[in-house]
Amino acid sequence: MLDAINAVDWGAIPGHPDWYEPARAARGLRALADAANLAEVAEASSLLRDGGIGHGHSAAVFPAAAVATPLLLDIARQGHPAARDAALGLVDEALSSYPHGEYTRVTTSYGTAVPICCTIAHQLRARSALLAELGKRGRALLADAAEHWRFEIRECVADSNDTAAFGALAGCFPSGMHAAELHVGSQIAVLDEVALEYPPVNGSVEACLRVTGWHPADLPPSAVLFPAECGERVH
Prior knowledge:
Layout: H1 2-6, H2 22-34, H3 38-49, E1 54-55, E2 60-61, H4 64-78, H5 81-96, E3 98-99, E4 105-108, E5 111-115, H6 116-126, H7 128-133, H8 136-146, E6 150-159, E7 162-170, E8 178-184, E9 187-198, E10 206-211, E11 224-227, H9 228-231
Parallel strand pairs: 2-3
Antiparallel strand pairs: 1-2, 4-5, 6-7, 6-11, 7-10, 8-9, 8-11, 9-10
Helix pairs in contact: 2-3, 2-4, 3-5, 4-5, 4-6, 5-6, 5-8, 6-8
């Protein structure tokens, strides 16, 4: 675990120059991984909460939190019981906090400007079995992550003036009409009216969204949709 923490160039991760302290991210994660008692857990958490992956006094989250989340989940799996609880609490804070302007997005394998909260939610879903094993708090994190849905378009069909978009849905698309960000490569557009036409069934991820006022040619395969409200989260 320490090798994974040390392998990250925390100084290369962008963050608000007045608040983000890369050394605190690295030191805090190492300390939390090695913590053997409550005092050590508290000290490590303070490093992470106040300059490492967020700024606790202003309830702000840094891009470093997206990189730290898988490491915190590893600590939750392997570390001291108090470190486990602290790690889950830090992830919970990162998911719910707002980022500073100009530091709201990160590059991932599925997008070059993904909102921090959606990136963290994706990582939580990837470790759903672990979180389910960690009891009530782990399950609560999964429930919160589901609100930050992600939809990958596979095929589109024209339907009058609208488009039926078929693809894979991760998380839970809420009922009703909602705005969504459309990510095509490095380009982002806002779809004002998107609704769930057919939900996934029987454990499948296959779903259909109705996009009002857009044509299939404007919604290419492999394009990804995220909640527009996540892209608007700014501290």
